[in-house]
Amino acid sequence: MSDALDTAAKPIKKPKRVLPERFKSYKGVWVFIEHEHGHVHPVSWELLGKGRELADKLGVELAGVLMGGDGDEIRAITAEVGAHGTDLCYLAQHPVLHDYRNQSYTLGMTELVNTYQPEILLLGATTQGRDLAGSVATTLLTGLTADCTGLDIDPSDRSLLSSRPTFGGSLMCTIVNLATRPQMATVRPRVMPMPARDPARPARVVEHALQLDESAIVTKVLDFIPDARADKPQLPFADFIVSGGRGLGKPENFQLVAELARTLGAEVGASRPAVHAGWADAERQVGQSGKTVRPKLYIAAGISGAVQHRVGMEGADAIAGINLDPGAPLFDFANYALIGNVTELLPALDKAFARRLATARTQRAQAHEEADRGEV
Prior knowledge:
- By secondary structure, the protein is α/β, with parallel strands linked by helices.
- It has 2 domains: about 5-215, HUPs (Rossmann fold), CATH 3.40.50; about 235-370, Rossmann fold, CATH 3.40.50.1220.
- The protein is built from 8 helices and 17 strands.
- The protein has helices at about 40-60, 70-85, 100-115, 125-140, 255-265, 270-275, 305-315, 340-370, and strands spanning about 30, 35, 40, 60-70, 90-95, 120-125, 145-150, 150-155, 160-165, 170-175, 185, 205, 240-245, 265-270, 295-300, 320-325, 335-340.
- The chain has a 7-stranded parallel β-sheet with strand order 7-11-6-1-4-5-12, with helices on both faces. Strands 14-13-15-16-17 form a 5-stranded parallel β-sheet.
- The protein is globular and about 65 Å long.
- It starts with about 30 loop residues before the first strand and ends with a helix.
- Keywords: Electron transport, FAD, Flavoprotein, Transport.
- Belongs to the ETF alpha-subunit/FixB family.
- It comes from Pseudothauera nasutitermitis.
- One of its GO terms (molecular function) is electron transfer activity.
């Protein structure tokens, strides 16, 4: 997260308000560990990395919250929770929790919160996380900030500073919960960096026996149908992305983006205006109302770089912008700026990358041949 958008790092003017006495005992940072059929969603590990930072600033423990059915499959995840930076893991197992259902998981989470009283609870802004966060916040009568792009701590009163775009992505705001606990926030996948894994790091496991009754849960799981997305773009996990915007001028010019992406072995992305114009599918939209990405290289062609788009791609290791306007907001945070006609620069880049990659492949092939002959 860049300093320009991380408004949580700036002083926040807040009204004078004293936290009610009953909430002053709430301590600790929690992260909900989202999993399905034995696989943990990567956003949970990303949140543990940010949670570790917040917990250290507060001088408290970081805990993962793991709920699921009986069996060793769920218990085995606790080791990974520790390896990603936690001090402890709350483990709640019950047959009713074998599959995610809003009612059963809300009952379980609210019981855990009321019992152990954390001051902060973070969840991934996934389909499951959003569903659970809203119902838990409503049940606990506490505040929830959704789709955050920045999280920090105000040392003056230990409050969580939750930053996110607002007014259609044109402004950034920081939301603070001064009256209730826990302070809740959701964060989309790939917004936070993945923390380093330390398999030797131990984590205490606190097992909690939940009192749940299947007959009291109104929804029933009849079957599990996997989401077949093998042929769909996986932008959040791509290492290289080439995105196009309305600056390309006309829909047929979007093919220039696809050609460069094909040369680089990259995914194709798009800005919101390009998607709304019908130049690209909605699944390829990058930004606040699209996908959040964190590639090694992000090339933005004909994209101005407004906040709405920026929050979805500024986590890239390197950003190259192509725009005719030298004053485009994109150039304020891009690592490389190519100022000129995008329809001329894209083909030139495509040819340059193709030549460079061909040379690299030839050199590697020669090196392998020499190695096979025993010359190296």
